[in-house]
C-alpha cells in the first residue's frame, strides 16, 4: 500500500513540473524524469505480489524476465537520472550564477 502512495506522489510531481512554468529548469526536468522512472519501477512490484497472493510459487523464467524487464529498466533509468541530478547540483554549487 505504501507503494501506491509513492506512485501517486511521483505522478503529482511530474504533473506539477509540466504545468508550472517556474519549474522548467534542468534540475526539475531531471527530477520529473527520475519520478517517471520510479513509477515504472514501482509498477513492477505488482506482479510478485500477485504471485504471492494467488498461491503460485513458481513461474517460468521467460515470463519472469518479461515481467521484470520494465521494472529493472525503470530502476536503471532512475539511478542514471539521480547521477545527472547530482552533477547538475554540484555544478550549480561550484559555479554559481551571480
Q: Can you describe this structure?
A:
It contains four helices and no strands. It is mainly α and 98 residues long. The protein has one domain. The chain is elongated, with a radius of gyration of 17 Å.
Secondary-structure blueprint:
Blueprint: H1 2-19, H2 26-43, H3 46-54, H4 61-94
Structural class: mainly alpha
The number of domains is 1
The ordered string of helix (H) and strand (E) elements is HHHH
User: pLDDT average, as an integer?
Assistant: 90
Overall geometry comes to elongated
Uncertain stretches of 5 or more adjacent residues: none
Describe what is shown at a glance:
By secondary structure, this protein is mostly helical. The protein is about 80% helix and about 0% strand.
